[in-house]
Amino acid sequence: MLYNLKELPNGIRIIHQEVPHTRLVHAGFILNIGSRDESKEQEGLVHFWEHMAFKGTKKRKAFHIINRLESLGGELNAYTTKEKVCFYASVLKEHFNKSAELLIDITLNSTFPEKQIEKERQVILEEMSMYRDSPEDCIQDEFDELVFEGHALGRNILGNEETVGQFTQKDFFEFISSRLDTTQLVFSVVGNISFKKVLLQVEGILSSIPSKRSLYMRSGYTSYSPKDKVILKDITQAHCAIGKQAYSLYDPKRFKLYLLNNILGGPSMNSRLNLSLREKHGYVYSVESIYQAYSDTGFVGIFFGTEENTVNRAKKLVMREINKLRSTKLGTMQLHMAKEQAIGQMAMAEENYAALMLVFGKNLLDKGKVDSLDSIFETIRATTAEDLLDIANEIFDPNQLSHLTYLPK
Prior knowledge:
Strand order of the largest sheet: 1-2-6-3-5-4
Shape: globular
Organism: Belliella kenyensis
Largest sheet: 6 strands, mixed
Radius of gyration: 22 Å
Number of helices: 15
């Protein structure tokens, strides 16, 4: 995977890939700061910061930020994860300079106006209510709490009413001051623009930012134990989550687990769980298995909704498919087809240049480089049926799986 890279004296890195056959340029700041970097009293602060970045800088008010790119047909957005916060934009190539300048402004010069904090506080509280009214979203957050109990990885990215209700302007400035590290800040660009032009537009501004180092260190997670929890809710359909801790970003087996998870419950309609629970028995509308890798650990979870009277039968089908993976090696043709499917999905994902821009930034922060697709494909193609059997027995040991079930009151 060809890309250009430049590290500035202050530690900020600029990564770029030119794509001549598009009219767009996608650019973004990716910061190695996420919800896991909050204390318990700061729960939800990074997500609140993400919202507040659009509410005022030293030279712009909220309207001017929103209107700057939207009026040109561009898009400005942001998101927060457990380990990253990202501010990014997509514009026609002739407007790259405007998007880059705006991204620098909102990422590094936010003023967090008190009046806007009060307004946005209500918006976030409404966002929380929306998620609570959506059990398929809510159960994923609550399952994080179950698997990573007592650790920051288990806390809700949105925070809670108590913490969000108390944040002040001072809290934002103090948190950013303690967590911001210019060596953990990447400006990523993918689109129809040369690296020379990118540097011409942003190198001077980014180089003028004072070098900043943070003494903060993330606390690792090592204390997983399986749990089983049932919650009664005002819902009409039951929802279930089954999973556990898994491999980190740096584990050499992570791509093999990606392949195994794809076979079990990936996005394709021919996943084993979809064929069993939906196509054969009609117990669910959708079922998915998710593998998420973090810097020091990981997570695998199976999620589905079903009628209350079919919960136990659906769970048994899930465990049956898990046991098949743990007891029966894939045949030669099955393994070949599974590999080709996973490789095809990854290749198609690379065609999404906005997502690719974010992947570049995240990979650079996590590993100091961007893994080439060819190297990932080699790992997948070298995976044996014995490898998958070993991983299935390690990751999907029934005695180590946690269960969370929502049942209608």
